[in-house]
Target: Cytidylate kinase
Amino acid sequence: MENGAAQPVIVAIDGPSGTGKSSTSKAVAAQLGLSYLDTGAQYRAITWWMVTNGIDIDDPTAIAAVAGKPEIVSGTDPENPTITVDGTDVAGPIRSQEVTSKVSAVSAVPEVRARITELQRSLATSAEKGIVVEGRDIGTTVLPDADLKVFLTASPEARAARRSGELKSTDVQATREALIKRDAADSSRKTSPLAKADDAVEVDTTELTLAQVIECVVTLVEEKRAGK
Ligand SMILES: Nc1ncnc2c1ncn2[C@@H]1O[C@H](COP(=O)(O)OP(=O)(O)OP(=O)(O)O)[C@@H](O)[C@H]1O
Ligand SMILES: Nc1ccn([C@@H]2O[C@H](COP(=O)(O)O)[C@@H](O)[C@H]2O)c(=O)n1
Model:
């Protein structure tokens, strides 16, 4: 560019539950001065709205009929990501066990995905310096032209141990089963399933510390920017 300013860079980070997408994406965005978008939080927010408004989660037609109603707003500062529904801060409630157990059913409804995908694209294109967007279908569907695509993986055992530590739960086996069940639902849905894009760089984080994963992704972004 003429004034020497860096071009905005779009980074897509996908992968199954508990692979470190949120922790990594937030830190990479903060280090590089980019915006950050947690797309899982958006699907959780619309699920929270459905539950709060008594919509039958087992009825995709009922979900589709109201998918356009809630106004979901995501704040994209990696130091302070926010999420509101119709003006209410839902950052806490969207992490409830009830929302976690229902989000895969809601996110499988095509009308929900169309609505949320539109929001995601609009936030990505308006991020002045660029953005790190994390989810399940970012590299394959939402932002197929992203400058860098990363697909994080980790063994179910490592992911369950991490998640149990976070939730202060001692039942690692139950956590492992819940993760596997959610991944299976997210991977088998018809519309934009959880999948690795053909041109994504796969990073197995099982034996890596969070700091090592962050460093790896920052290096990948810097290499892209340098045209390597
Ligand atoms: N490489 C790592 N080593 C150890 N712990 C990690 C690593 N990466 C992430 N964690 C921890 O694992 C937990 C899950 O990480 P995180 O929420 O970032 O995963 P996620 O892929 O975004 O999960 P989900 O899709 O379910 O939201 C967090 O407590 C985080 O601190
Ligand atoms: N791009 C995405 C992101 C998320 N989902 C759905 O949301 C659920 C919650 O995601 P978390 O990352 O917050 O755990 C996830 O299980 C998916 O059902 C999605 O479909 N697409």
Q: What stands out?
A: The mean pLDDT is 95. The chain has one domain: 9-221.
